[in-house]
Amino acid sequence: MTYTLGMDTEQEFFTDTYVSAEHVNLTQIREAAGLTPYELGRAWGYRGGPEIASTVRQMERRKDFLVSRLAAFIHAAGGTAELVVKVNGQELRFEVVK
């Protein structure tokens, strides 16, 4: 069973929720997309010069980050993401980045 939350709902729902970088490797996501830090920054909507790459690298090095920021990062990389919840032997999937 799949439920769609979508970017707008997800961003509102997860506004104050943090994810530990121990569980998600942003550099790995960016590299899987075949993007440089600069290219990902541009896709994310950052404008400017070389400092864009620095901004992306800083985010990749953080110990934790907001789920909404993670969703934006994944979206900029051209990826999708879903939240999988297992309850009473049931597996529920929620699309959080489409």
Describe the structure.
The chain is an alpha+beta fold and 98 residues long. The protein has one domain. Helix content is 45%, strand content 24%. It contains 5 helices and 5 strands. The strands form 2 sheets. Strands 1-5-4 form a 3-stranded mixed beta sheet. The chain is elongated and about 50 Å long. It starts with a strand and ends with a strand. 15% of the residues are buried. The N terminus is likely disordered.
Q: Can you tag this structure with a few keywords?
A:
5 strands; disordered N terminus; 5 helices; alpha+beta; elongated; 98 residues; 3-stranded mixed sheet
Summarize the structure.
By secondary structure, the protein is an alpha+beta fold. It contains 5 helices and 5 strands; from the N terminus they run βαβαααβαββ.
Average pLDDT taken over every residue? 84
Strand content: 15-25%
Described by the principal axes of the CA atoms, the overall outline is: elongated
Number of helices, counting only DSSP H or I runs of 4 residues or more: 5
Pairing-aware structural class of the strands and helices?
Answer: alpha+beta
Number of strands: 5
Main sheet: strands, sense, barrel = 3 strands, mixed
Order of helix and strand elements from N to C terminus: EHEHHHEHEE
Name the poorly predicted regions: 1-12
Order the strands across the largest sheet as they lie in space.
1-5-4
User: Helicity range of the residues?
Assistant: 40-55%
Rg to the nearest angstrom? 14 Å
What's the end-to-end separation, in Å? 16 Å
